[in-house]
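$ fold --in a.seq
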Amino acid sequence: MSLFSSLQQANNALQAAQVGLQVTGNNIANVNTPDYLRQRVIYTPAPTQAIGNLRLGLGVRVEAIVQQVDQFLEERLRGSRSDLAKGEAEENTFTQLDALIGELSDTDLSTSLNNFFGSINDILNQPEDLGVRNLTILRGQTLADDISRLYQRVRQVQLDTNDRIRDAAGTINGLLTDIAEVNKKITTMEGGITKSDAVGLRDQRQRKLTELSELIGIRAVEQENGSVSVFAGGEYLVTDGIARQVYADEEPRDGANFVDIKIVDFESPLQTDTGKLAGLVNSRDHILGDFLGQLDNFAKSFAFEFNKVFSSGQGLTGYESIESEHFVSAEQWDDALDQVGLPFTPENGSFQVKLLNRQTGVTETHDIFIQLNGTNEDTSLEDLRAALDDIDGLSATISLEGQLQINADQPNIEFAFADDTSGVLAALGVGTFFTGSSATDLGVNEMVSGDPSKFAASSSGIGKDTDNAVALASFSERALDSFSGTTVTAFYKDLVGGVAQTAAVTKGITEGFRVFKDTLEGQKLGVSGVNLDEEAVRMITFQRQFQASSRMIATLDELLEVLVNL
């Protein structure tokens, strides 16, 4: 073996030490870089040299620089991040919903309900005081406003969530394109005979995959050429350098344009059960959507059931004229009242019309029968109008808009209604307290708010007693079929309690996902993370290797000088 072979051997060792120091320094520099994967130098013996019968090695050579990564662990970690992102999105939605409901505050809906029914009790103590009746009306308006306000605020959160879903399409497309571009660079750099990883590019791709996994549930499979194929719900989104795009498809639903994320190539929904996107969709459609549906059902049923009791009573004064709130289209005037599309459905029964002659003080009572048995004899709006018009002292017409109009056609005559077992007055919106048929349009009848004496506290005649006020005051504790046999207060309590319970369950599940992710990240740090103590030991090792190799070169240089001078 010549001195030049020894120089080559020392040079190989020197270069190996330099590469080792550079990789170690890169690891130390990226100790706090997210998603950085620790790099490692792969050393192998250099080729041997034949000297006679001897086989002498030429030292060491660097075969490759690779990342320390457990692909199975990375896949599990991406899945845990998707689960956590979904849970955190839902948890955030519940936090906002709980704040809007504000059940522990002084302005919550429960307080408005209690204040409203409490004010009706005050009428029992002071039935002649119009100020007390007016306070009840104001409390009723406050209750209606609180229901509408809560609905609108939750609705706004739902619309904001829908906007975030729409924005997610652009973010997903950007990440898919970036991954495809990095794929092409990696395959180019790693192509050929090299065994080294394109470490910097792989780190970039790792970050993009992490971001994408937090948005949607994905499965990433590395191919032999170094590229990564990305799948979601069985459909590929990235393969080699090709990226499929998604788009936000708007569909009118529940009075708004709700967005679904679809794959452009198939125009089919992007299938993902985890990730932030899945959490936002579930929040919009179920957490917020279901609450809005239940709140709307609460408002509608509450108004109808309360109006059925209220319209069966009489105030301190009667009506001289009245018009129904809800209308029936002209082509349905002769159809059965339970088939004409009213917001509320009347049933078979009857009600009374009480006519008070203010001059004589005499009250006449007339029975109006509502037949709704599914036969050809069922009562229509025209039948009802004719029956009311037949009462001496009243005239009844149907307006061009399809609203029932009732007027006293004699002087000194006032009229009111009583004992409505059919619910037809509440269904048409005649002599009611609340107006509207949903949480968004709930209000107080202007005829009552404009004249507190019209508050129907009596049940036996105009200004006679407070028996109907007793029924109204106890309405909150009355079991109702519209609320599945529960009371108004119990139904709302269950509604709010259901939100609180589901929020607690979601929080617990999310915390479990968080712990699991942290556990996997700890395992990843053990495999791919940078340990400064270990890197410091490697740095000293390579330093000593470099020093020894340099010393060997210096020694060989002296020997060559001696040889030259012979």
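$ fold --in b.seq
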Amino acid sequence: MSTLDPVAVFRTEAAECLEAIEAGLLDLTHQLDNKDLVDAVFRGLHTLKGSGAMFGFEALAAFTHHCETAFDRVRKGEVAATSELVAAVLAAQDHMRALVDQPDADHGDTGHKLLAQLQAAVGGKQAAAAAPAAVPTTAAGREAPAKKKNSWRIRFSLPANSMANGTNPLGLLDELRDLGECTVRANSSAIPPLDALAPTELHISWDVTLTSEQDRSAIDDVFIFVLDDMELSVEEIGGQAAATAAPVEEKAATAPVAAVSAASPTSVPEFRPVEAVPAKREAPAAISQAKAAENVRVPAERLDELMDRVGELVIAQSRLSQLASASADIALRSVSEEIERLSGELRDTMMVLRMVPVATLFSRFRRLIHDLARETGKVIELVTEGESTEVDKTVIERLADPLVHLVRNSIDHGLETPADRLASGKTEAGTVTLSARQAGGEVIISIKDDGRGINRERVRAKAESSGLIQPGQPLSDSELLQLIFAPGFSTAAAITNLSGRGVGMDVVKKTVEALRGAIDIVSLPGQGSEVSLRIPLTLAIIDGLLVRVGSGRYVIPLSAVEECLELSLEEDLRSRGRSFISLRDSLVPFLRLRDLFRTGTKPDVHQKVVVISTGTERVGLVVDQIIGDHQTVIKSMSKLHNNVATFSGATILGDGSVALILDVGHLVAAGQQQEAQLRVAG
């Protein structure tokens, strides 16, 4: 059994901590006087600093300490929270992330520049101090009025496996020393005999007497990262009631301990026998086990591996079902049906495990909007809708970059400056809306702005000058707007940090097509634009409708199928040259897949029409036979077939043969194009 790397675990938790800090800072931008947000950011910075020191990320701990000190001053009312301070800590947070990912890399003087920016934001030298100050001073350099000192007795013990998990108890003791004058005694009574001692286990507990101006919350913050698994008792000395985080039973016993002077935190402790208080370790066990059972961290690659195994199981189950259907053995058929049911449930469970809400994707854009607003001088509001919509994690990962390009494009090309918006009768603040909704087997993610809209004359002029279209070539509005996704296409007058090189929208189109998706654009002059990405919910296993065309078998995604009709020979002959069927008083175009695939076979007497749709567009597919539903494990096409737009993938059938999966979006577009051509001709 493999063991988790403590450093990898720290990096995962540090990433979550940094995300929480960033979210708190962005919220603070709009509510600079919110004390709860200030406290939340301070706790996040404190946790990151303490845990970084425990796991040996000394550069991270030292750098984060300066940001923590700045927010501590805000928390105490010594300086005010400003947008400049938030921006400085946001920039510093990016550097913290770099120190987590590459602690040994050469980051140059980035840290010094960020600390200078932080110092300027708080208006004092304390923010860039190299060491923590025991007594805070005012911005002018005067010492603050002396505060009342409290004495505390702190007794704590860590789990036996804490050092193996990367927790360094010396880091906790150093943080306690930072709070004020303290005396530390180590209780070694629980150390087993040498022959039974495991070098990776911790058997020492500590008894600390602390005299500090800080309150109880500062002591709790020291242990905030390990509080769930440890035993901790904090008592205020002086006759007041004890504040206890975990029960500790006192016993009249003597044990060897170590007294360490707070004046030399780096000196080697000298051990001598004094009275000690051994800790009783039984109360938190049940609580810790209960909390551990609530959530389990699983690496994403393990989910991918499990998904592959489930896919192979589905293929094997399909083979078993085919064998059972050809057998007269009732017992075999019964077992086959049971395995089919179980494999279907396992597949559904696996798909749920892979689904994540798009909120994890949308949350990344708060920071992007904040930075772009400062860079462009525009006032921008971000609105998100449908954050609870769930999509396959692979889709989320691949959509991150395309959405960044679309948002940057909306802000740079779409939204006007505050002066232009006010002149046109709009509000000063422009709005960018990210929304997600599920439609059948697809999720539709839209990026909408209330800006100036797309200038169609400029798009056509640029396309003609670039040779993408012939001068005066007739194009529908949809075809004209789709030109902005052409490689190298840009209507920007000058190249900026945001746009102008003509590569962003090309990346969007290629990524969406690789996900078997499609892009729709709607733009109204003076009112804004909306780009909608239609993406499959999953890229792994789908329910499909297995059909036969000639001698070949194909799979149509079941989520796109509306209904199935029979096409008689008379109706087929009557519709020659028109390719329309009447469906409840509406005409639906259809494609003869036998002609499209050039099978060279005669049509069956009783052909079928499978009506498929994407959004509001519908088209019929004429097939020879509908075989039935099929659990389809999607396999990627080879590099030689990447440009074949009619098919989105392949799957393995129960008999080992391969069936191609039809690209519904492409076929619907082809049907609608055929309908448009017939209407123009007739």
